[in-house]
Amino acid sequence: MTTYAHTYGDEGPTLTPNAFGLVYENAISENVPGQVNLHRVTYTVEGIEVVANVYTPRFFADAQNDRRYPAVVVAHPNGGSKDQVAGLYAQKLAEAGFVTIAFDARYQGESGGMPRRTDKPAVRMGDIMGAIDYLQNYPGVDPERIGAFGICGGGGYTFATAQVDKRIKAVGTLSLFNTGEVRRNGYMRTQMDSKFERQREAALARRKEAAGAEPELAGFMNWTPEEARQIKVDLYRDGYFYYGVTHKSPNAPGTYLKSSLMDMMAWDATDHADLITQPLLIIAGEIADSRYMSEEAFEKATGTADKELFIVPGATHIRTYFVPEYVEQITARIRQFFAEKL
Hints:
Blueprint: E1 6-9, E2 12-15, E3 37-45, E4 48-56, E5 69-75, H1 85-95, E6 99-103, H2 121-136, E7 141-151, H3 153-164, E8 168-174, H4 179-185, H5 195-210, E9 217-219, H6 225-229, H7 234-246, E10 255-257, H8 261-264, E11 280-285, H9 291-300, E12 307-312, H10 324-341
Parallel strand pairs: 5-6, 5-7, 7-8, 8-11, 11-12
Antiparallel strand pairs: 1-2, 3-4, 4-6, 9-10
């Protein structure tokens, strides 16, 4: 059931947010008894309000009071929101019988926090822990069967959170993006010679903020579609169209505070990868130029023997977010993984 007005171009569907604000194909647009339902919820993490969507499986409302469901926390990419790919896979997992939650990171989307567009690793990891706090107390959820699934930057933050939060019983990532490594060394390690200069720029941005200036933003550039098509790096080329055209959402501007680089550049998702003892599933596109980050995280996760690197044939990074043939493969694998491990 496709619930969006959409047109198709070279980059895929152009979607209009539905009644729930969701921007992905076949998103639910109304709650129907006996089907997956969406519940908009709010809760606080460290005093800041978080806005999230909880997806409940079919017949959840009619379940016996003593029945408990497994649950999965889904973390969105850097610059993204709960309404895009995080919502897509949260819904797909709910269709398989899991209670899921997709949330907007604090300082972003519909969640609270100032200054807006702050994107710091400690905050993002705290968001995942806060979602677990909420979900473990959600009626019908079994707190002993909670998993976590993160996409892109959310994948890196989920990978890091699983190192310290053992309430996560199984962890999966899709198109993992190690934010610290990239902000420090550049994407595909193309800026290793300029890291100290970029640190100075981030410190200067914070100095200006502290003096009352408007925060300086970093992130997507103001390319034209023609310019974007010429970009050789698939993450940025496809990302331009996904975030700026086909799956555009007012909750996902694709930018972050330059001052956040101070925190990002001193952090790495894999620093303590050996602390992951849970079952681990890492998914990456076969031809994604970000694949190296998934492979490195997989190799460094020496604390678990129960791990798998699942490669999606023919897929780039962003196309794992929406291309039906890739989404179908990924959905089948994550449903099986969480069903077996939770």
